[in-house]
Amino acid sequence: MTIKTVIFDLDDTLLWDKKSIADAFAKTCQYAAGKYPQIEPATLEQYVREAARALYESYETYDYTVQIGINPFEGLWGHFDDPTDGFQQMKAIVPQYRRDAWTQGLAKYGIDDATFGAELGEQFIAFRIESPCVYDETYAVLDELKAQYQLILLTNGAPSLQNKKLEITPELVPYFDQIIISGDFGIGKPDKSIFEHVLTFTKGNADECIMVGDNLMTDILGSSRVNMRNVWINREEKAPSDVVTPSYEIDTLTKLKPLIETL
Fold first, then answer.
1. Is the pLDDT of residue 252 over 90?
2. pLDDT higher than 90, residue 131
3. Phi, psi angle pair for 72, to nearest 5°
4. Residue 52, φ and ψ in degrees, nearest 5
């Protein structure tokens, strides 16, 4: 059946979020080395990432973050000023979380400096905001598609954080007829209900829609639960899954429109 609506994931599909986070880590760790020359920036990054994951999973908000789809490194720069009780709990936790993650990273070097750990937490936020990365092909592909298809953005995350990402890449927003954020809806991909919610905004039924995303376990699994065709964008040559099989697989967004035109 002819495709009428293309539904896009945001992070690491249109925005290169992993690179933005990596760039912010690199700049922050280099900043730390300016004060403590014994620091090797890449090693400090590893220490802080490990500390952040462990801390993040220890908080009572962890199950909620999994439900909404928020990862530890988003917690390092998000403020979560969103209305639900879960987000308000996160808002209260994250200042200490940032401070502790960076302070524990410094401690691996034998550096006991919580004040500087807090400073690094704030530097990381600033560097992340000034480091938005968009894939080279994103805008050209959206330009190609916009004239022929309804475009919808479906992203997991806190509304405050996902909207900040869109605020610092404002060129993206006008392409989309609808922008749906899991934190607004109450549960994230791959839950079937959020895809059913998306279908209430589409110009066609599930057969006339296609989901495009980088994550097999959220974008591809979730869309398959409503019998929607999907495209796995596998830029990193990841191994296939024994659990989830995409309808189609591409390694760059430039291959998307030619694929859709064959359907």
1. yes
2. no
3. -55, -35
4. -65, -45
Task: Report yes or no on whether pTM surpasses 0.70.
Answer: yes
Long-range CB contacts (< 8 A, 24+ apart) of 58-63?
59/93, 59/97, 60/89, 61/86, 61/89, 61/90, 61/93
Rounded CA gap, 248 and 10, in Å?
18
Q: Strand order in 5-8's β-sheet?
A: 178-181, 150-155, 5-8, 209-213, 229-233, 248-250
CA distance linking residue 122 with residue 4, whole number of Å:
44
Longest Cα–Cα distance of the chain, Å, equals 62
R_g of the chain computed on alpha carbons: 19
Q: What confidence category does residue 41 fall into, taking pLDDT thresholds of 50, 70 and 90?
A: very high
Helix locations, the chain, DSSP H: 17-35, 41-58, 62-68, 72-75, 85-107, 114-129, 138-146, 159-167, 182-185, 192-199, 221-224, 256-261
Residue 135 CA to its chain's centroid (Å): 14
